[in-house]
Amino acid sequence: MMAHRIDTFDIVKGIGILLMIIGHSTGKIPYLRDFIFSFHMPLFFLVSGYFFKPLSWKDLLLKNSKRLLVPYLFTAFIITLYMLIYAWCQHHNVADVVLTRMRAIALGSGAPRVFGM
Length: 117
Hints:
The chain is mainly alpha-helical.
């Protein structure tokens, strides 16, 4: 059975997403950015909290690892593979790339500038 969607929440989430994009694009208008940043994340938390369903720790870990960890590790693997190929082609130290990427993946810190990319 498919749950009925509440259009109001979809609209509020859409407005929140647009505000997030505007807020991150307003480097020259700090007052607008600060205003948007003052409420756009709490808005997402409130909307998400409305749909919260308690789960056991086991179910929560299984659900989130499949939904979040698998895509994260897949993307990290693709980026690392690209960076290794680039490092090898440019005659950079591949071991440094591997160590830097492993640290970045473990800390969730994105793709550091290993060799000025």
